[in-house]
Amino acid sequence: MSLAGFNAFEYRGDTLHCEGVSLAAVADAVGTPAFVYSRKAIEAAYKAYDAALDGVDHLICYSVKANSSIGILNVLARLGAGADIVSGGELFRWLKAGGDAGKVVFSGVGKTEAEMRTALEAGILAFNVESTEEIDVLDRVARAAGVKARVALRVNPDVDAQTHPYISTGLTQNKFGIAAAAARDAFRHAASLANLDVRGIDCHIGSQLTKTSPFADAIARLCDLILSLAGEGIMITDLDIGGGLGIDYGKEGDAPPPSHGEYGAAVKQAMAKLGSHPIRLLVEPGRSIVGPAGVLLARVLYNKDNEVKHFTIIDAAMNDLIRPSFYGSHHPMTPVKKSETAPRKTDVVGPICETGDFLARDRALPPLATGALLAIGAAGAYSFTMSSNYNTRPRAVEVLVSGDRYTVIRERETLEHLVRGERTAE
Ligand SMILES: *Cc1c(COP(=O)(O)O)cnc(C)c1O
Fold first, then answer.
1. pLDDT averaged over the chain?
2. Over the stretch 169-189, which tens digit does the pLDDT of each residue have?
3. What is the pLDDT of residue 218?
4. Secondary structure letter of residue 168 according to DSSP
5. Are 119 and 127 in contact (CB under 8 A)?
6. Is 18 among the residues known to form the active site?
7. What is the largest CA-CA distance in the chain?
8. Domains in the chain, please, with CATH?
9. How do residues 216-231 score in pLDDT, each as one tens digit?
10. How does pLDDT run across 38-84, given as a tens digit for each residue?
11. Minimum-distance ligand 1 atom for the alpha carbon of 65
């Protein structure tokens, strides 16, 4: 689990640490399941993007949905990051975390008028508009508010991101963006409206991309459109290429994702066709900023065998980390106490009453007795944010480590939190 040359999680002696903090000590203090994040790893990832895009005017808008905890958003806000949001709720969180409203881009196919009003009031940088109907609604909402809305149009460039179908977003069959063929007319129409200020073009082709070529293809298509729009007097000065850079989930045989440097070089090369056209680059990384920076700590409850399988039952479940059940994702796992015992294959499962409740299948792990701690890696992105209360399980505590200190950035939910607002009928 290494990131931008920085290893956030390493054994010191026989105990896994996050930076200078023992994960065994954290688990004893805050209980399990627990998400533990490395501040230094988040900062290193952000800085790696910044360095990779050196030489082009750029803004890094962290994709809030990857991990929207206020304590995490605050780390990014302090670094000067912007934010890519997909709901009014994410804007609320970003502002609570001390984030700059003027660096927010608002994506998503289903923005409500209320969300548009709130975002206009906050003074966000741009709406990434995803349909021709949304263009007209936003113009009307902006007129009623007496302001001009800054917009980018999200174009679906029809490129195959070569990733999991659920997280592929740049193909014609996906719901995202305005079809490439209709984009020119959409820009003309948007540019004709009095309460829209059309400055940008945007795309986001998918997540967990392990090659740079789909990014380059998408950028090339957007640049062609920028140049041809400039020919008819529509000046696009913001090029937003979305997020999507993959991370290493530690699966044997998987090709390693491109480094930030390789990504930056490919982006710059693809943008070169803009020549002297003035442009600012926006990127919206989520997973590659926070994914490798987090682990989910769990404790072993029971072991059991049958004729064909060994099961390791832990106190974390699919409600805490749904990626293995939902996408068939692989997460690296390692015992918190280093073990010299030979590994054997086991299914790592949670207490939830679903056969789909597994964190790993047929995983080679040393035997872990009741009470042993397991660290599930690469759990900083799309992990806590996708967690639920299924089976009336309180969501986990979250801890942010910095050096040899840590802060509980979110308390474990209580059962009272879970039933808040519920009542019986008369
Ligand atoms: C989810 C999302 C991102 C972030 O994607 P990652 O793969 O986490 O980098 C960026 N932009 C948009 C519009 C998204 O929906």
1. 95
2. 777 778 888 998 899 999 999
3. 96
4. B
5. yes
6. no
7. 72
8. 2-38+291-419 (2.40.37.10), 107-285 (3.20.20.10)
9. 999 999 999 999 999 9
10. 999 999 999 999 999 999 999 999 999 999 999 999 999 999 999 99
11. 1
Tell me, what DSSP letter sits at residue 30?
H
CA–CA gap between residue 124 and residue 120 (Å, rounded): 6
Tokens for 161? 């991101």
Pocket of ligand 1 (CB under 6 A): 63, 65-66, 84, 86, 107, 204, 207, 242-244, 284-288
Q: CA of 267: how far to CAs of 58, 92, 150, 226, 282, in Å? A: 12, 31, 24, 16, 11
Nearest residue to 403 (alpha-carbon basis) of 40, 16, 30: 40
Atom of ligand 1 nearest to the CA of 107: 13
Q: Looking at residues 357-374, what average pLDDT do you find?
A: 97
Percentage of the chain beyond pLDDT 70 is 99
> Is the separation of the CB atoms in 33 and 315 below 8 Å?
yes
375 CA distance to ligand 1 centroid (A)?
26
Q: Is 63 left (phi over 0), alpha (psi -120 to 50) or beta?
A: beta
Testing ligand 1's pocket by substitution, the residue of 84, 178, 201 carrying the most ligand atoms inside 8 A of its CB is 84
CA distance 16 to 44: 20
Which of 42, 107, 111 gets mutated to test ligand 1 (max ligand atoms within 8 A of its CB)?
107
pLDDT band of residue 5 (cuts 50, 70, 90) is very low
- Comparing CA positions, the residue from 151, 103, 283 lying closest to residue 205 is 283
Counting atoms of ligand 1 from 1, which one is nearest the CA of 207? Answer: 7
List, for residues 286-315, the tens digit of each pLDDT value: 999 999 999 999 999 999 999 999 999 999
**pLDDT value, residue 81:** 98
Spatial separation of the C-alpha atoms in residues 248 and 262, rounded to whole Å:
15
Angle 76-79-84 from CA coordinates, rounded to 5° = 45
The full DSSP string for 317-351 is -TTT--HHHHH-----EEESB---SPPEEEEEE-S
Among residues 18, 61, 223, 353, which one is catalytic? Answer: 353
List, in sequence order, every residue forming a beta bridge with 149; answer none if it has no partner: 196
- CA–centroid distance, 102 to ligand 1, in Å, is 19
Going by pLDDT thresholds of 50, 70 and 90, the confidence category of residue 6 is low
How many angstroms does the Cα of residue 167 sit away from the middle of ligand 1?
Answer: 9
CB 34 within 8 A of CB 297: yes
User: What is the distance in A from the centroid of ligand 1 to the CA of 21?
Assistant: 30
